[in-house]
Specification:
By secondary structure, the protein is mainly beta. The chain has helices spanning 6-17, 19-22; strands spanning 30-31, 40-45, 51-55, 60-63, 71-72, 80-85, 91-95, 98-102, 110-112, 121-126, 132-136, 140-144, 152-153, 163-168, 174-178, 181-185, 193-194, 204-209, 215-219, 222-226, 234-235, 245-250, 256-260, 263-267, 275-276, 286-290, 293-297, 302-306. Strands 1-28-27-26 form a four-stranded antiparallel sheet, with no helix packed on it.
């Protein structure tokens, strides 16, 4: 989902030291009681109010009460970049140390890397039919047909294999941000095709596909939209104070929520316009939505608000 650079570590340090100053500009955001394990780069919010928070360097924390209390899982001392929900109580986590799977809603995790040569995984996704996808730095796209127990590379058609983001299309296709370009697969990830060059040559940090099939890509240069399953792209409104968009989620009422290097932005018109929604001056690395609760992962911890 998100890519860490040397500059990012400097930003994390500055954000931590400046937290007391910027916290005043929460704009109806409430800071939860943690987690205090570092910057939160991955979030999942379930409809019952439970949350998973993936941190930079300190693994996964979970909350069962909307963020009022947090506990650390057994996954510690790794950086976590993305979550994906499987069936039942199963979750997958993309980490610097490969893919981990939890079968108890994130309380405990097992490392699942059989067949992976490159384990620096940036994104993970569970597709219809149960196939699990992982996007890895230098390894490109991996797929698993046995719930993560084993993996195989699936990079046919991809020239340079630096995988960053994944998304599922309504027609059963898969879309991926790989090496500053967009690829699409129409056969469940076996063959990939490079999409139109309208897409800027920048890294994609996250991909969101709405219920009506519109694809949005959060990039180093703002948010881009495709109305034809990734074939062509256009830039959305440019109202961001900082164009680096780390994460993107679809909220209620066709609302899009973007986590940027300078706070939260929302759009209610398919990205034509974006409005600042609080946490100005603070890098926000992840967003999650579920059960009417919107959550933002920052440094330190998680902010929440009701929408």
């Amino acid at each position: 989902m998100k890519h860490i650079t040397a500059t990012s570590f400097i930003v994390l340090f500055l954000a931590a030291t400046a937290f007391q100053t910027v916290a005043a500009d929460t704009n109806n955001w409430n800071h939860t009681d943690g987690p205090y394990g570092g910057s939160v780069w991955a979030l999942h919010v379930s409809g019952d109010g439970s949350m998973l928070a993936g941190t930079l360097g300190n693994g996964v924390y979970f909350s069962t009460d909307g963020g009022d209390n947090w506990l650390q899982s057994n996954l510690e001392d790794v950086s976590v970049y993305d979550f994906a929900r499987g069936s039942g109580d199963t979750f997958f986590a993309a980490t610097q140390n490969g893919v981990y799977r939890s079968d108890n809603n994130g309380r405990s995790w097992r490392r699942m890397v059989q067949g992976m040569d490159e384990t620096h995984v940036q994104a993970v996704m569970v597709h219809e039919g149960g196939r699990v996808f992982a996007a890895a730095l230098a390894g490109g796209i991996y797929v698993s047909d046995d719930n993560g127990s084993s993996w195989s590379q699936s990079n046919e058609g991809i020239a340079l294999t630096f995988g960053y983001a994944l998304g599922a299309l309504p027609d059963g296709g898969v879309i991926a941000g790989v090496t500053n370009q967009i690829y699409r697969s129409e056969d469940g990830g076996d063959l990939w095709v490079l999409m139109d060059t309208d897409f800027p040559h920048v890294r994609t940090n996250a991909i969101v596909v709405t219920d009506d099939g519109v694809v949005f890509a959060a990039t180093q240069d703002g948010v881009y939209r495709s109305d034809d399953s990734g074939q062509t792209w256009q830039g959305t409104g440019n109202q961001f104070a900082d164009t680096e968009v780390y994460d993107l989620v679809a909220g209620s009422g066709n609302m899009l929520v973007a986590a940027t290097r300078n706070g939260i932005y929302t759009s209610s018109n398919n990205g034509d316009n974006w409005e600042a929604e609080g946490l100005a001056g603070q890098p926000v690395y992840s967003v999650g939505y579920g059960g009417g609760v919107l959550a933002a992962g920052a440094n330190p911890g998680v902010f929440v608000r009701n929408r």
